[in-house]
Amino acid sequence: MSHATPEFVFMTCRAGAESALKQEVARVEPAWRPAFSRPGFLTFKHAGETPLDDTELGERHWTFAHSHGVSLGRLTGTQLAELVRQVWQHAGVSAIVNSKTPLEIHVWQREPAFDDAGDETFVTPLCLEIEAALRVAAPESAIVQRAISTPRRAAPHNSRVLDVVVVEPGEWWIGYHRAVRRVERWPGGVIPVRLPAHAVSRSYVKLEEALQWSDLPLAREDECVEIGCAPGGASQALLERGLFVTGIDPAVVDPTVLAHPRFRHLKKRGSDVRRQEFVGVRWLTADMNIAPNDTLDEVEAILTNPQAAIRGLVLTLKMSDWSVATRLPEFVERVRAWGFRDVRTRQLVTGGQEVCLVALRRKALRRLGRKRNRVGALSRERQDAGHDVPAGPHF
Ligand SMILES: C[S@@+](CC[C@H](N)C(=O)[O-])C[C@H]1O[C@@H](n2cnc3c(N)ncnc32)[C@H](O)[C@@H]1O
Fold it and tell me: What confidence tier does 376 reach under pLDDT thresholds 50, 70, 90?
């Protein structure tokens, strides 16, 4: 469907990752030109002959972009009501309102702030105030919910979303996108994952985001090896999904993780572990504070063992400096060469200066996963209840 004549794309990213994102866009879309740029927010001029289409854009992915969409430009003002009026009067917004498609509204700011619980959030109280005002003032013809639902629900798959990025309180950038992928269903591409009080490290939330973003078909009772597991936050996230976890790390693992009946610790470097330990293992995660090629060397040594039948990987690739980002295609190729045909990369919202790479042997496994008996987090009560768990391959 054509609207005004969209010519610009907006993207949001981790503040500091702008040049990595610009390089990525220059590599993938050499005809696009960087236009506006602030920490965490960029626009690009699309120089193609056909207007941008939000459905086509929705299927696109950039490693360093947390979110992206068709940009309709900047609105400035000092009064909330005046800015809200400008949004609904914008010709590009009218075009999507009149398309008779239900409209979702996402409002978030380009850099996170801390909420009352001390967690980072992009949807600040100001953003909620703006969203509420937008909903109330939406034109009659807009098929839009007049109040924000609490708790917020993900935008329905394939729905159209009006985006308002609060670049400054009096400077909003507006646009729209199709909620095709899971991340696109949440404001700013920020999947709501929280760090629970019992987590022993922030890696808990990072792995949760990686699993929710990638939708890897992990199942209860699967065995996962985690290289670089200490102190154990990511292992906790896996254990709470009912997996068996072998954590490999010469460093000390938190006693609460060590005590879990489905966890065992091999206090070694990855390269020092007997290959036998990987037989029957389905998943491998690696989160080591070493250079990407060194992480890949460690993983490769395991995968080249003919007995290893690892189905999927979740690897953290540290970008010690941003110039490493230009080598991402090389890292992806290396993983593909090991026989993983479905390789995706994303700079996670909860991650640091690093990229998460997930890989599956075959893309069809993604579908298979939906049919398997998948589980979310087990309740704390259940985990604490005792040790009556069936034995996994190495347990
Ligand atoms: C960022 S921390 C991992 C955090 C951990 N994933 C968690 O969930 O708490 C990085 C870890 O990588 C470990 N490491 C570095 N090189 C390693 C190697 N070759 N083999 C195993 N672990 C390694 C370090 O000892 C360190 O504990």
Answer: very low
Beta pairing, strands 67-76 & 160-168? unpaired
List pLDDT tens digits, range 124-179: 999 999 999 999 999 999 999 999 988 899 999 989 999 999 999 999 999 999 99
Q: How far is CA 8 from CA 43, 68, 99, 288, in A?
A: 6, 11, 20, 38
3-state SS string for 239-289:
HCCCCEEEEECCCCCCHHHHCCCCEEEECCCHHHCCHHHHCCCCEEEECCC
Question: How much distance in Å is there from the Cα of 148 to the middle of ligand 1?
Answer: 41
The answer, yes or no, to whether any atom of ligand 1 lies below 6 A from the CB of 109, is: no
Q: Residue 250 C-alpha to ligand 1 middle, in angstroms? A: 8
Residue whose CA lies nearest to ligand 1 atom number 23: 228
Distance 204 CA to ligand 1 centre (A): 14
**Dihedral through CA 130, CA 136, CA 140, CA 146, nearest 10?**
100
Distance 285 CA to ligand 1 centre (A): 11
Query: CA-to-CA distance for 201 and 198, rounded, in angstroms?
Result: 9
pLDDT value of residue 375: 45
For residues 43 and 33, the answer to whether their CB atoms sit within 8 Å is: no
